[in-house]
Amino acid sequence: MLAKFMRSKSMRSKSMLHSDRGHPAGSPVDLVFGSVGAAIALVLLTGTFALGQSNKPQSQNKPVGGGAVARGKYIVESVAMCGQCHTPHDTDGSPERARWLQGAPVPWQPTKPDSNWPISAPRIGRTPLPASDEDMIKLLTTGVWTTGSQLRAPMPQFRMDRGDAEAVVAYLKSLTAQQ
């Protein structure tokens, strides 16, 4: 983009006989000063954006203590965003924490009619889980359900590693009715 800008600046300069600095328009002097000016502007802009950013890691939803349940909670709530579909939402559009991961109507419809599109997302929180621990881990690591079929859209086809899948299952099993 900078090169394109410099070429267009050079083309405009060549249409004039002389630059305002007294040397022929489009000369190497114009290119050097234009390039240096553009580079300085880029450095200043980059520095301005960098000043607004913090070097501290954001820890608002990251697991505390490093246990499997905390890790699973982080994956479910902040990475996979399971509550978007598997939790009912109130009139403001916020997930109802009292019914967290207890199943809900799928909030999206396909752009083209699809008879295989689910109308509700199942309950995935609390015991008993919708399937055995091993079946849930298989679903999260392969995208294949107990029937041997791939998960239907809009459910993501997860390919978690086994440790992450086990952590998700541990978190889902830890949920109580009031979470």
* Helix-strand sequence: HHHHEEHH
- Low-confidence stretches are 1-17, 41-64
Number of domains: 2
**CATH topology annotation of the largest domain:** Cytochrome Bc1 Complex, Chain D, domain 2
Tell me the span between the first and last alpha carbons: 51 Å
Helix content: 40-55%
Largest sheet: 2 strands, antiparallel
Give the tally of β-strands.
2
Helix-strand category: mainly alpha
Q: Can you tell me the CATH architecture of the largest domain?
A: Orthogonal Bundle
Gyration radius (Cα, Å) is 28 Å
Main-sheet strand order equals 1-2
Number of helices: 6
Overall mean pLDDT stands at 75
CATH class of the largest domain: Mainly Alpha
Strand content: under 5%
Question: How would the global form be characterised?
Answer: globular
List the helices and strands and how they pair.
Layout: H1 2-14, H2 28-51, H3 68-79, H4 83-86, E1 104-105, E2 120-121, H5 133-142, H6 162-174
Antiparallel strand pairs: 1-2
Helix pairs in contact: 1-2, 3-6, 5-6
Tell me about this structure:
It is a single chain. With 179 residues, the chain is an all-alpha fold. The protein folds into two domains: 2-51; 68-174, Cytochrome Bc1 Complex, Chain D, domain 2 (Orthogonal Bundle), CATH 1.10.760. It has six helices and two strands. It has helices at residues 2-14, 28-51, 68-79, 83-86, 133-142, 162-174; strands at residues 104-105, 120-121. Strands 1-2 form a two-stranded antiparallel sheet. Helix 1 packs antiparallel against helix 2. The longest helix has 24 residues, at 28-51. The two termini are 51 Å apart. The model is unreliable at 1-17 and 41-64 (pLDDT under 50).
